[in-house]
């Protein structure tokens, strides 16, 4: 097998683990790839690196390709989400002066917390087009105002008294708690049990023009996700991610942060459900005054379940029978129809029990 060179971008977060593990544990090499990883300082910088072809792929916030398809964010090139690389992994944190407002509110109950939090809040998110922002809008209401701060800088913004609450991918919230800057409030999975946080993204023209490279990269990352599903591998994963080219943080911090609810593989976690993209697209459209029907159609086209089935069927990936589903309808782990046999799906409930039906939304 001839080796192909590919460069992928990431931000220093635990859900960059699939790319990092694919390189460091030779899953990429076994697929015939010379994988180089490039760390970016912010999501806007990483989006631009991918859009302008300075990296071939990226561990990307799932709403960015959707926003780009809707003409939001300024990027011209079409970006596609080839597969989901992590569900969850977000954490909400707040400073000590908010504690008195919570009183005896149950901190595991998003509904009770919403009524106890003082409004308005100065809220930090890592990027306007992020699952982080969508979770907060879904929980606290569309009237909230958010400000963008790159993930590693959110704790410092709170320490400077500029934020009352932030949501960020781990390990930055746990790190802020260790430094005494913030207390941990809720994981993102308390709002939506299985939010598609990061995706493996490529420019559409690149992914379609070189299907051999696309398939090799998808299989390498999928195999890394499969390896990460085993809890006994997390110590090793934390030690790898702690290295200076990657997160450059203590391994024990990374290992603890991996208990924030992030899921890399089980329950068809890597499958890019088109209904997830439609949920994102519909919400972005309403907030930005766009036609919701057109936005949903454009959004679902960027979650490439067709390429997932093409390139990962030979690897043995579980393939659901359909590429869309009712989002928020699974309350218990269970078997569901598949392209062949049955597949396990994990709970994906919203905190208030609502269900998103892509056929009627």
Description:
The protein is α/β, with parallel strands linked by helices. The protein is 37% helix and 18% strand. The protein contains 16 helices and twelve strands. The protein has a five-stranded mixed beta sheet with strand order 2-1-3-10-4, sandwiched between helices. α7 links the parallel β6 and β7. The N and C termini lie far apart (47 Å). The model has no long low-confidence stretch (mean pLDDT 96).
Question: What is shown here, in short?
Answer:
The protein is of the alpha/beta class and 361 residues long. The protein has 16 helices and twelve strands.
Describe the secondary structure blueprint for this structure.
Layout lengths: L3 E7 L6 H8 L2 H4 L2 E7 L3 H9 L5 E5 L1 H7 L9 E9 L2 E5 L4 H4 L7 H7 L6 E3 L5 H10 L5 E3 L5 H6 L5 E5 L2 H7 L4 E5 L8 E8 H6 L1 H18 L5 H8 L9 H7 L16 H15 L3 H9 L4 H8 L21 E4 L4 E4 L16
Parallel strand pairs: 1-2, 1-3, 6-7, 6-8
Antiparallel strand pairs: 3-10, 4-10, 5-8, 5-9, 11-12
Helix pairs in contact: 1-11, 4-15, 11-16, 12-13, 14-15
